[in-house]
Amino acid sequence: MEFDLKTTKVNEFINITLEIDEAIEESGVSDGICVVFIPHTTAGITLAEGVDPDVTRDVVMALERQFPWEDGYIHVKWGKAANAKSSSVGVSETMIIKNGKKYTGSWQQAFFCEFSGPGRRKVYVKTIDNPDKTFLGKISLQTSGQTDFVDIMAQVEENIRESGIKDGICVLHLPETSAGITINDSENDVPRVLADEMGKMIPTKTNYSAQVKTSIMGNTETVIIENGSLLLGDRQRIMCFEFDGPRKREIFLRIIGNE
Amino acid sequence: MKFQQSEFRLQTSRRSEFVDITSKVREKISESGVSQGLCLVYSPHTSSGMTINQGVEPDVTPEIVEQLNKCFPWEDQYHHHEGNCACHVKTTIIGTSEKVIIKDGKILLGDCERIFFSEFNGPRPRVVFLEIIGE
Asked: Got the DSSP string for B24-89?
């Protein structure tokens, strides 16, 4: 399932809780999980307080201060800080479905996070209630710099093919605390900008800077599988992000769904 | 395939702290009888999150807390009337849930990895939701 939305500002959080509720209702799933995925590299999703609109305004402001739009990137066409915001906030949320409704906290609302609007945007919703197959896969790689990134899309796709699962979700976990996984643009200088922005936020001389960065970026990701393929945006690539290399890294994949 | 939902409570003791909940999650997975699958570990709050990080060295998580405090100070020019917006920003950055892989009835974690409930507006009673999926 998917729905479109239109953003009206450069930075804006749009409440999409109702649309998600409708998608869950439409799916007819009574008990299961729901993955909401944003197929863009300059947007994200978060669960936040939705009662007082000042809260998300403050979150937008704090993110803008941390990753300023024009900071050092005035020569490029768009503010790449938007990509850094996307990788910090994340492009997916997973929620529990109980008795046909999403089971979340009473203050929690889902927000689409626009970081380079205004524009037309898309949101994917996947519900899972009765999968018949699970598959465990592994990806091994070698990073080459202290900070580095490795595009792991091809290996993820290979594992999905091997699993035989055509419809479901894939959870990736890098079981170490000094490297992360993110879904973002692997071209247009974006990975370097991500590394720079992370470095500015948490300088390398800080104790355990790699671990702090890992918690900010996250070392797990969830992607949707439909018709045997990954449901991603055109520019989105799955990347392993090294903060303490060079090292050998392993990433585990759990694929759940139907053949 | 099984879908098993459960929850547990915890009490945090500081304004900002990371609480290791790995053994509680392990216990729930073992009770579920699921040997191959996934577990969604979910914080239903707007001022606390979930992260997987180093749990063997005791200095690591306090350092993460300190760095986040430095990036998003408690006192800032926030609009929100409760004046606690830093906790919401940190929650958005860290995220409210984690998914762990279950293999042979055990959580597939690195040797040093632990699952942490990340309190950003404590101390207070909190709850964690779990959804265990698998066979």
From this structure: HHHHHHHHHT--SEEEEEE---SSEEEEEEE-SSTTHHHHHHHHHHHHS-SSS----TTS-HHHHH
